[in-house]
Amino acid sequence: MFLFALLQGGITQKLSAFSVHLKEKKRDVVFLDTPGHAAFTAMRSYGAKATDVVVLVVALDDGVRPQTREAAKIAKDMGCTLVVAVNKMDKIADPDERNQARLNLLTELTACDVVAEEFGGDIQVVGISGKTGMGLPELLDSILLQVMCAALCILYIMCWRQPPPPPITLVYPP
Q: 55-104 pLDDT, tens per residue?
């Protein structure tokens, strides 16, 4: 009962799904929201099995927590594409302090084998604010880009594995 009372108020406590329709892109994006609390490991693992892209949301002011490490490991183990959303980017007003906090966070993520593109890795990192909506269009673009890249890779693999077409013999009239 005490844990339930503490976690009330905007914190995910169950697996849920919701859809966002992107009019300009004529697409729907479906999100599976899994709890971040350490007690919900099995639920996060189940959610990772059902996704194309895992969005790892990390609060700028919290840094990498044990459940962040665990969620990153689950995504890697499942072979999921990963995008990192750094939330609460609006909380630090000074741009220099905000950039330093972001770099510290990216360094912490690197220790979890989540290496950002700007550090030479393959993980896109997008700064967002759930409060103001800052960065959410960029986050959606990153998600769609990852989905399209995965679809192209699958198409390439399918084409590559097919046997080559038979040779064409041209017969000219004598």
A: 888 999 888 988 888 888 888 887 888 899 999 999 988 989 999 999 99
φ, ψ of residue 125 to 5 degrees: the values are -125, 125
User: Could you give the C-alpha distances from 19 to 22, 29, 36, in angstroms and in order?
Assistant: 10, 6, 20
User: Domains in the chain, please, with CATH?
Assistant: 2-161 (3.40.50.300)
Place of tokens 């700028």: 60
Q: What are 148's two structure tokens?
A: 């399209």
**pLDDT tens by residue, 47-56:** 555 567 788 8
What tokens does 34 get? 């899994």
- Torsion angle, alpha carbons of 137, 141, 143, 147, to 10: 150
Angstrom distance (rounded) from CA 135 to CA 49: 26
